[in-house]
Automatic annotation (TrEMBL):
Domain of life: Bacteria
Pfam families reported for this sequence: AP_endonuc_2
Domain Xylose isomerase-like TIM barrel: 36-277
Transmembrane intervals: none
NCBIfam families attached to this UniProt entry: myo_inos_iolE (TIGR04379)
SUPFAM superfamilies (UniProt xref): Xylose isomerase-like (SSF51658)
Protein's organism: Virgibacillus indicus
Name of the featured protein: Myo-inosose-2 dehydratase
Length: 298
């Protein structure tokens, strides 16, 4: 049950239970088991996941447990002008699907030059000026389509992509129209990219329409960067965890969200091995941690 003085909607990401991006992590739970555990913890929202999309009766599962879908990730390559039109067509289809699911936000992340989809590459390839211009144009067109549906495009700054560091995030925010392009603020990816999560939240609060609450294990991230490990290797080695189990101070972050009356979704998230970090137990701990911090604000 949500605390009365939390203005935002606190949800939970399914990635703790099932992470198809890392095949080395086992698939241990059915879609219904995942949704049932989330609901039993008092969550009312989650994100769509490829596993969920394989279920013919998934909407019935959501309804049975009083859960809703907040959004879903959409990879794009708007930075390639030759692909922009086809990418925009795919994006619109995705936005239409989420709109039918009752979502108010579409999560998008640029994959051009990314280490995520090009596993043989150890470093992200920076976008050139032409690619930046193409990316901005594509995002604004996509955002305008979202607006026509009564939705927001929320850009996810993400490790191992072209928009990872504070400078890259700032450039994207400066180049895009605030009316069509908003931000997904992710505490863990902000830290990985070298930014102070609280400072980033404070600077771009008015652009933020969606939040991922993820903690980090500082030593693990430092090892990942120092040893030039790929992003996936860092995740497998445990660089991320749930709020309250790592090194980010969430008290000022939550205080800002509450005091400035952020009313969108804030989803707890942590990519961890489900056998090493039990999803139910870690999610329960994170929820209690967040609620206790908010209660302490009284």
């Amino acid at each position: 049950m949500q605390l009365e003085n939390i203005p935002f909607k606190l949800g939970i990401q399914p990635i703790a239970w099932i992470n198809q991006g890392i095949p080395e992590f086992p698939d241990l739970y059915s879609s219904e088991e995942i949704i049932r555990e989330m609901a039993s913890l008092g969550f009312s929202g989650t994100e769509m996941n490829p596993k969920f999309m394989e279920e013919d009766n998934f909407e019935s599962i959501l309804e049975n447990y009083g859960m809703e879908i907040a959004s879903q990730w959409k990879s794009v390559t708007f930075s390639d002008a030759s692909l922009r039109d086809s990418e925009l067509t795919g994006f619109k289809q995705h936005a239409d699907f989420l709109n039918k699911m009752g979502c108010k936000a579409v999560i998008v992340c640029e994959m051009g030059g990314s280490d995520l989809s090009i596993p043989q590459r150890n470093f992200v390839e920076p976008l050139n000026e032409e690619q930046w211009d193409s990316l901005v144009k594509g995002l604004e067109l996509a955002g305008e389509y979202c607006n026509s549906l009564g939705m927001d495009l929320v850009y996810h700054h993400h490790a191992a992509t072209a928009i990872e560091t504070e400078g890259e995030i700032g450039r994207l925010m400066d180049m895009t129209d605030h009316r069509s392009v908003s931000m997904l603020f992710d505490t863990g990816h902000a830290y990985y990219g070298g930014a102070d999560p609280y400072a980033l939240l404070m600077k771009y609060f008015d652009r933020i329409k969606y939040v991922h609450l993820k903690d980090v294990r500082k030593g693990k991230i430092e090892n990942c960067l120092r040893n030039k490990e790929k992003f996936k290797e860092g995740v497998m080695n445990g660089m991320f965890t749930v709020p309250g189990d790592g090194d980010i101070d969430f008290a000022p972050i939550l205080e800002m969200l509450v005091m400035r009356k952020y009313d969108g979704w804030a989803l707890i998230e942590a990519e961890q091995h489900p056998e090493k970090a039990n999803p139910y137990r870690y999610s329960k701990s994170a929820k209690e941690y967040i609620e206790n911090l908010v209660l302490a604000m009284d």
